[in-house]
Amino acid sequence: MFIGRKRELSSLNQQYETGNFEFPVIYGRRRVGKTELIQEFIKDKRALYIQGVIGREKQNLENIATAVYDFVNDEILDGVYYETIEQALNAITKIMEKEKIILVIDEYPYLAESIPSVSSVLQLYIDQKWRHLNTMLILCGSSMSFIEKQILSYASPLYGRWTKSYKVLEFTFSETCVFLNTVSKKDALGYYAITNGIPFYLRMIDQNISLNENIHRLFLENNARLLEEPINLLNMEVRDPASYMAILTAIAQGASKNNEIATKANFSPQLATSILDNLIELGIVEKKAPILSNTRKTIYIIKDDLYRFWFTFIAKNVNFIRSSRSKSVEKVIMERLNKFLAPVFEQICREWLLDVSEADGFDSYINEIGAWWGGNPKTKQQEEIDIIATTISDELFLGECKWWEKSVSVDVLQTLIDRSEMFAHEKKILYVFVKESFTEDAILFAKENNINLITFKEMMRIE
């Protein structure tokens, strides 16, 4: 069953029905479901599907020729070959002139690497031959930097020709819950974290066994499917994966500022910055700044939770796991899993507030949301606030999130009140989100101090 991507499918179908030449660009990180989206879109339409491959020009031209012959004759014929990309596009143009088709070029960056002139040639065919036809061209790719720089940017020969771009993102937590529809919402949050919401990995989850058993099966067996997945992905994306591994390891071990990361990885700050910038482009790392603070306090975190899980628990233990000695690793994961899931819970709480705001649940709309960290002038200590959000009416939301098994007590609520005093906003709205429950004293204290208490069960509307 195809799940999610309703907006993308609806928009693609609207483009298809315009009667004009349409040129959508679809891109996103590997395994995120771009090809599945395209296949779902074209399943009831006439489509010529071409797959770019890593290889030389001759191989890609042979693949195009085979795809064209298969489309026209409904059979595959080996040995068909075009001498140039222009010959291939001439043949495709003849098909377009006879009937409405969708021309899909998947993994376009591979094709462009083997035929560097292809973007300029496509520009020529779009301008001179296709722009007045009722047809559609889809370019798709996993190299986000290539797509953004070589297709979508002003410097690209194709700039101004594409009609819409679709950046396919990971599943949201809500979509993950629909995908894993027979597991508990708490387990779904765990699966959402260890897979980063990537559909390809979510398909690997066995919903008939526990979260612990799935972690063991996917990461802790010597032939586990995700045991070396981040290494394999980095090998496909970058030229010097060992350096990227060193940077990610440094962040996973607690380094968050550029100089700290560079020192721990034994790199110059300039090299560390370059690698960090590339990791940000790949969607693996994020540079964050606290809300309502200056940018000097920016930090780097591992944004992709699959990588964060892997570099936290698996990276240093691969050899143990390969030799079937994973019991100690599994014990550490289970002991620290709640701590690992805490940032994911925080993000889900932020999204919950945004959803309530969008549904007119507050007096004013939230216009910025994130976290805060910095020095508390009263305590003279570095402190953090999990959620801080501003509204268009200058209200301030402050929230604390606890993914704990135990009930949350008054101490957490009092700490939030104390930290809220650092901000001069006239109206402050306080929230505490928890995995399980609150003590009776905390519930009474919240009523007396007008603090909103929200359990995960209430957030998920679980009976």
Structural write-up:
It is a single chain. Helix 14 (258-265) packs across helix 15 (269-281). The relative contact order is 0.07. Helix 19 (410-420) links the parallel strand 10 (396-402) and strand 11 (428-434). It is built from 21 helices and twelve strands. The chain folds into three domains: 6-167, P-loop containing nucleotide triphosphate hydrolases (Rossmann fold, 3-Layer(aba) Sandwich); 174-342, Orthogonal Bundle (Arc Repressor Mutant, subunit A); 362-459, Trna Endonuclease, Chain: A, domain 1 (3-Layer(aba) Sandwich). It has helices spanning 6-16, 34-42, 57-73, 85-98, 108-114, 118-130, 144-150, 173-179, 185-195, 199-202, 211-219, 229-237, 241-252, 258-265, 269-281, 305-314, 318-322, 327-358, 410-420, 440-449, 456-459, and strands at 24-27, 47-51, 102-106, 136-141, 164-167, 285-288, 299-302, 366-376, 381-391, 396-402, 428-434, 451-455. With 463 residues, the protein is an alpha/beta fold. The model has no long low-confidence stretch (mean pLDDT 94). A five-stranded parallel β-sheet has the order 2-3-4-1-5, sandwiched between helices. The chain has a five-stranded mixed β-sheet with strand order 8-9-10-11-12.
Q: How would you describe the shape?
A: globular
Low-confidence stretches: none
Q: Give the biggest sheet.
A: 5 strands, parallel
Estimate the mean pLDDT confidence. Answer: 94
| Number of E strands | 12
Please, how many helices? 21
Beginning-to-end CA distance, first to last residue? 26 Å
The assigned structural class equals: alpha/beta
The proportion of residues in beta strands is: 15-25%
How many structural units, i.e. domains? 3
CATH fold-level name of the largest domain: Arc Repressor Mutant, subunit A
User: What is the strand arrangement across the widest sheet?
Assistant: 2-3-4-1-5
- What is the annotated CATH architecture of the largest domain? Orthogonal Bundle
| Rg calc | 25 Å
Q: Percent of residues in helical segments? A: 40-55%
Q: At the first level of CATH, what is the class of the largest domain?
A: Mainly Alpha
